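In this supplementary section we document a worked example of the pipeline. Step one takes a protein sequence of length 421 as its only input; no multiple sequence alignment statistics are reported here. Step two produces a three-dimensional model, which step three serialises into structure tokens for compact storage. The input and output of this example are shown verbatim.
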Amino acid sequence: MKIRHLKQEDIPAVMEIYAHAREFQKAHGNPNQWAKNNWPPQEVIEADAQSGKGYVCCEDNRICAVFYYDYGRQPEKTYEIIDGRWKDDSWYGVVHRIASDGTVKGAGSFCIMWAFEQCGHLRIDTHEDNYVMQNMLEKLGFERCGIIYLDDGDPRLAYEKSDPEGRRIFETEGSDPLRVFAEGSVWQSAVSLKHGISFEPVFPYCRVFTRIFEVHRSVGKMLMIGGGMMTFPAYVLSKYPDITVDVAEPDGRLLPLAEEYFGLKELYDRYHVKEEGRLNVYTQDGRSFLQEHPVKYDVIINDAFSGPLPAASLCSKEAAEIIRGRLNENGLYAVNVPGLASAAESDFLMDEIRTLREVFRYVLLLEPDDHEGHERDNYILFASDVYDYIEDMVPYSLAYTAVITDRDTPHLQDFYESLNG
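The serialised model returned by step three reads:
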């Protein structure tokens, strides 16, 4: 089964599904939820299609289910007041108007879990007589949290499912509020909301990345591996009008969130980067992108992660050789590596330095000036065959000279085992 957006031409088939659902509800002891008012009317479904929040589930290119999905800080106003208590106050997704034609077993569950996987925090309500939906939600791990009331006063049973280790968006408070995208406790992307959405980097390690454009003044084409919410590509594109940025980001679910909540739409409108071809996003992991796209770059930045460490497939000597082959003669490679209490305590970091040193002539390790109280520090490795860049960077928060000569240190091979150890 596959999920796609609802189109206007789908509406006749979808309305037949809703007609089937009304009859199904009546036959299973629920005559009042939809059948009583012939819900939902066609104009509501047309609005769902127009808003981009309507979705259909297809099996063999045939629509078998339909639903509405939205995500945000408070996408459903009737959930603001609940007789009971929600379990998670972070941004959430909501599903409404879900129905199937009954021909594909498990289609409803598939749609709900698809929605949950988009956000990691989903809320949904149902009629007290809709025992079929209640049973399905409980089997899928949803918890009943209380009762909410629709605009007309009708009560609905409220359910919620949240993954504390999953993805979430939230906003901080204080004099410089941030909007943050996190996976579990790890902040992956953030933008400042102090004066509207700002393209200036929030994280200290990203501010170290900006040093690249001070020492390498002829950057024309850049590759960002691991775009996340596109906050750093947005900074580069807004500040340097002559730079084109390619982004390899394997998670295609992030781009709509980046557009809606992290300023990417504003970047499109203000700087016309899509029309001018200055931003190109590829839904692909960094290693396969590098192997399949023989393009030369002035700068390659690696900010791709698998859990708390860089993506394993990009840490090996083989990967470093591919990266070096994708750089122009004066190219520069930068990679974000999380450390521990200090760089010296991170065996992985030292191994990666040694590995890059086997491929590139010069390697430098820098750390951000301000760790802002985080328990885990980020370290930035720069690698190049051009000494001028490294020389210019020496006065900038230098932590280690990183002149590695120990040729006996084992190289990081593909899928380095210590990443999982």
